[in-house]
Every structure is written in C-alpha cells, then in structure tokens.
Sequence to fold (372 residues):
Amino acid sequence: MIIGKISMGSVRLEQVFKTFDSGTVVNDVNLNINDKEFVVLVGPSGCGKSTTLRMIAGLEEISGGKIFIDEQIVNDVPPKDRDIAMVFQNYALYPHMSVFENLAFGLKMRKYPKEEIKTRVRQAAEILGIEELLDRKPKALSGGQRQRVALGRAIVRKPKVFLFDEPLSNLDANLRVQMRTEISRLHKQIETTMIYVTHDQIEAMSMGDRIVVMNKGIVQQVDTPLTIYNEPANRFVAGFIGSPTMNFFDGRLLTQDQLCFEQSSNKFIMELHPDFSRRLSPYGNREVSLGIRPEHIGAKPQNNHSKKVSAGILVTEPLGNEIFIYFTIGQSPVQYVSRIPSDVQPQTGKMFDLYFDTSKFHFFDSQTGIAL
Fold:
C-alpha cells in the first residue's frame, strides 16, 4: 500500500554562505533541486555538506543568500514550518515508547485525529516492512530496524522534502547495502524530493539522480553520477569519485609530430589518442596532470591505443572476481593502482607489463586543477 500523495517541493539555494568565528564553511552555494529528485551532497569531512543540509532544514542560520522551498523563501521560517522531515545519523528514538508511539509522536504533537494517526503509522510500517515491530521498544530492535523506524517517523509526516544526514553511518557493511536499496526504493514509491548527505562516494554514485560534490565549502560539480565519473570537472572531483581512486601523473604536453605526454619524474613519454591531440594542442609545452582510472590500466592491451608500461609490483589484493595491483614506475616512489581480472597473477616484487588505455586519459591544469 502506498502512503498516499505526498506534497512535492523544489529546493533552491542562491548565493548561500555560512560563516563561523573560525571562517567560512559554506561559500556561495547555488543549487536547484527539482520536485521528486534524489540529490546527494558528497564530499570529505568538513566540506560543508551537513551544514548546507542543516541550513535547508532551518537548524542552522544562514550568513548570506536565500533558500527557497517550493518557490517560497524560507530564510526566516522556523524548521517546524518548512514542511521538511529530517533523518539523522543518530536515530534519536524515544526509548520508553513503542515503535508505534515513536512513529505517531510528531503527528500527536500536531494534533492530528487519532484515526488518521493510526492510518498513517500503519501505512508507513507497511512500506518499510516493520508492521510486526509496532509494539516493540527501540532496545529490542536491530540497527537496521531502528533506522527503518527513523525513516517511518519522517514518512508519516508527508513532507515536501526529506533530508538525510549520513543516516547509514552507524550500520555495518551488509546493512548499509541493504538500506541503500531500501531508501532508493522508498524514493520511487513515495515520489518526493530527497536530499541526502554522505561522505561515502559509493552511496552517492548508487543512489542519486544527481550528485553535488563539495570541497572546502565550495560546490565543485553538479551532475549525474555517470557524468561526474566520466567527465570530472577538476582534479579534486576526479580523485574523490571512484574506488580505487584515479591515478595521477604530473608532467607536460610535448608538441612533436604527434602531441605526447612526458611524465616529470621518469621522463617516460606516451603518444596521445588523436582525439586528445586535436583538443589539447593549444596546451602544448604546458605543465599538466594526467589522470587514468585503475580499470583502464590492464594486464592485456584493451585496444589499438593501449600503451605498454613496465611496472614494479608492490602489493596485490585479490578480491575474488578481480585483483587490485599497487605498483611503481621507474625510480619514482609514487604508488599507483590497477584493477585486473583474477585470472592474471602478477608476482609481488617482480616487474610486470601493464597496458594504459590512452583513449581513457583525463587531463587537468597543473595550477588550477580544472579539466582541460
């Protein structure tokens, strides 16, 4: 049973700032979130993502700019009147109340009729599969069940916007995967706007319609997960999104018969794919960073544009269907990583030929970090 039509709401941030005594933690954020959209704010600890969420909720006063919910400015609207519901990392359930009472508490405080409260609570419990838990106290629940109750407490409100502040951080790995699926399914079922904060880029990639990557209080890129993965706007985004992280080589572009990249430390040279030659020719003889993802460094040539590189194998990590290989090139101490099929078994401490797919290179300005 679906819990009925939930009010829809867009969210818009215009030049939003937040400054504490220690400095600016959110800097000129401009963001449009559409009705029914699932948007994930992701970034390292201290990047400003939770502060941004708390400003949308009204739990943190903004220092500048405007916040709109459903096209209504809410800068001075208290949290209880913003028609939002928030799910925290800490479940914050009342230990002396049953699950039913926890779910019903907010509705009782708002003076809803008893029959409507019962209907909403039972519909939310059915959606989340916790009908048999309604008479239990929180201490008798597992972590995943407590998180479902916290979700249910938000669902019964039928808000315009759901806000999630790292809600899965306290769960073990298996439960995190399960709850990611549950929240994604919930979004499709109740069709309302969701804004989700996490430092886990796997959660961001697997859940969001769009991802907002933040660093040091600044929005770095806003786009779909695949676009951010395949077309990162700068070196920070390229290095943050993806596991294992993207490999980076510092060097410069050489203008020869064909445009080439020369690595600084080892002086090895790679001819570039023709598409890059046309696009990067204006950057000839400039310092750049070359990026390549681990899956594009293989044990065999991937295509006609693969470049063989002799690598010193440091460590191998077998993961069942694939192996992570950590390696060095030449005399440089810098460590890189490749992911290859498990039917190949490089030996630690030995040299091994790896093949770089030059058609999958990314290039970034050495000074600004911006993608070229």
